[in-house]
Structures
1.
Amino acid sequence: QVQLVESGGGLVDSGGSLRLSCSASGAGFDSAKYKVAWFRQAPGKEREGVSCIRLNDGRTYHADSVKGRFAISRDNAKSTVYLQLDSLKPEDTGRYYCIVDDLPCFDAEYGLAGWWGQGTQVTVSS
């Protein structure tokens, strides 16, 4: 059973940066079949996948809206995935969730049978 805990969110000004952390426990975290994705949810909006990493080959994916500004990485020794958020915009505001699944990154059903953390709030002031 994979358990995930997110941290690192906060309130920042436009153009600021944050580094989110997703700390995982459970042997399944390092499974070659798993992907680790960051999704965000804002009030009145559907969840949006922002970044994802494949654990088998390390390939990363980013939504067009964040490409070049966000970066996803993993520290295997710490069983932690990071999301570096730079050049933040107000539209990046939302609660960010770390999700582990074996479906392809950003599959339409990604996360439905996967593992979610509790999320961490990111608020970007205009």
2.
Amino acid sequence: QVQLAESGGGLVQAGGSLRLSCAASGRTSSTYAMGWFRQAPGKEREFVTSIRRDGGSTSYADSVKGRFTISRDNAKSTVYLLMNSLKPEDTAIYYCAAADIFTARRGEYDYWGQGTQVTVSS
């Protein structure tokens, strides 16, 4: 079992920056792939970005390319999401997720954090 604890959410003005953190505990060897999803009011949860354990093979949704950067520190069992040039449409609950290598092969995730609110004002 893996537990994910998110932090760093809050209120920020449009054009500003924010960095989210997600610390994994438990069976951290099962965090082969880690990613971020978000869900805005009245909308479905959507994929934001993901990263493999070796730091390569990053992937980004078109809506955040060039603005968001995902990274991870395996020694600290933590993944980060640096969000620059934030827009009001980025407002959502952001969820951290993790998958072992077998689940990742299917493009799915095993574990989810509780979510952290990001609000971007105009």
